[in-house]
Amino acid sequence: MAVPARITLITLGVADLARATEFYRALGWEPTPYSSEEITFIQTSGSMLALFSTDELAADARLDPPGGAGFRGVTLAINLDSDDDVRRVLAEAEAAGATIVKPAERSQFFAGLDGYFTDPDGHAWEVAHNPDLPGG
Q1: Could you give the CA distance from residue 91 to residue 42 in angstroms, rounded to a whole number?
Q2: Residue 123 and residue 113: Cα distance in Å, rounded?
Q3: Which one, 21, 39, 57, 71, has least CB within 10 Å?
């Protein structure tokens, strides 16, 4: 038997759950009824995003909490239908409180634009138009 090739839930460790929840709300992503005072669940296309205290998440996984706010070796990505959508979504993320760490520019890996923003906890999100992948 093989491990199923699917991602059901991605949990982001956050320093301040209320702040993180408000940031994602400002993106237009509403918490689900499964949410509580301890965790926020947001339904996305095909999977759920969860926001949970970094320290609690580390304890649950029996791992040490990450140190600092630098790159964590993981990015999340949203593939869009056009280059104009990439520019628009990056601007909307910035208006919601994101930090743009790479403005929209021609990708060196595919025929389209990509850029990156970080949320208030430093989680990196790529916003791309890769016409060779689903959703783009």
Answers
A1: 21
A2: 20
A3: 71
> How many folded domains does the chain comprise?
2
Distance between CA atoms of 121 and 111, rounded to whole angstroms?
Answer: 30
Tell whether 79 and 124 lie within a shared domain.
yes
Look at the block and give the residue holding tokens 């630098």. 70
Give the C-alpha separation, 20 to 123, whole Å. Answer: 11
Please report whether residue 49 resides in a domain: yes
Pairing of β 9-14 and β 48-53: parallel
> Which of the 8 DSSP states describes residue 133?
S
